Structures are given as C-alpha cells and as structure tokens.
Amino acid sequence: MAKYFIIGETGSDDLWLVDVDNKRVEPLTRTTLASSQAADADLIQIVSKARKNGIATIKGVDVAIATSSRSDIEAQMFSGDPVE
Description:
Elements (H helix, E strand, L loop, with lengths): L3 E5 L6 E5 L4 E4 L2 H7 L6 H10 L32
Antiparallel strand pairs: 1-2, 2-3
C-alpha cells in the first residue's frame, strides 16, 4: 500500500505531497493528486479550509520536526497520559 503525507507550513498557503514509497516531495496540486491517486482533487480545498480555521491533523505520524537548518534542530514535545 502506498504511503503519502500532506505537509503545510504555518504562514504559507503551499501544501506538499510526500510520496514515501517513491521518496519524492512535490507541491500538492490537483495534477499531483490525480497522478498519485492519493485522494480526490477536492482534498486541496478541504485541507485549505481546515487550515484557515486552525485545524491541524496528525494521523499515523508519531514525530514531525520543522527547522530551517539541519544543524540547529529544536524540538518541543507535548505528552499527556491518555488515561487521565
């Protein structure tokens, strides 16, 4: 089964499609969605609307680090006990 991630950076409207199997990252457009068969082209509108409303979804991702440099990575971890 193919694996894809959609990533968007705060402050930018751009979305990126990460194709794990082919080790490729490209701008997410209607064309890339159609060619990857990852989802319907309307997904872009749905994701964009959700982002404008402040929604962030992380499903199946247990770590994500964003940095402008490989040598200066800063990480923050938020953890909570699901039983509490």
